[in-house]
Amino acid sequence: MLDFAPGAPGLPGSPGPAGARATGGKGDKGDIGVAGQPGDKGDSGAQGIQGPLGVKGDQGNMGFMGPPGPCSPAIQSAFSASINQSFPAANWPVPFRDVLTNEQMHFDPNMGMYTAPINGTYVFSFHLATNQKPLKVGLFRNFYPVARVTEASSQTTASHTVVLHLSSRDQVWLQVKDSLTNGMFTDSESKSTFSGYLLAAHFKGGAFAE
């Protein structure tokens, strides 16, 4: 029987030829990666179109009552004056230049005319001394006589009181008829006076009523 002894290892062989190439099938979806850093803020977008009007909401509850408002001062108007010269000119307002009271300055003593400051009810009165001549005098409102008084006797007094409704800026005055019946008189013992005052203002709905 022949004995065989192992020989030395052989040399490596040459590389084999490249295998055929082909694309493999799509693999499974990988796991979500770690979140990246926030990106920079983008530019503002254009304003969108206005949306439709919403549904009207329910009425709210009544609020609390507010504090009382300040009180307005009552409107006042009054005057009284006497003549300082006897026998005034006819067909012209009689001036009453000796003023007894006229704090609101609604009476013009040189013209003898009272101008109503507001719509309201007013009271006018006159007490006129006469001497030497009879007296025919009228109370006028805006050039229209509203009362006339005749006093034929001398050395007496003609008196009258009238209640009138006036609108703001209406004017009232006294006027004698003519030079034959202008016996209105004044001296140290006798005075001829004209007086008036606001009795009640006419106020309605936040404004002075007519």
UniProtKB/TrEMBL annotation:
It is found in: Secreted, Extracellular space, Extracellular matrix. Keywords: Collagen, Extracellular matrix, Secreted, Signal. Residues 72-205 form the C1q domain. PROSITE patterns: C1Q. Residues 1-51 are annotated as: Disordered. Its main location: secreted. Pfam families: C1q, Collagen. One of its GO terms (cellular component) is collagen trimer. InterPro entries: C1q_dom, Collagen, Collagen/C1q_domain, Tumour_necrosis_fac-like_dom. The keyword Transmembrane helix does not apply. Gene3D superfamilies: 2.60.120.40. This is Collagen alpha-1(X) chain-like.
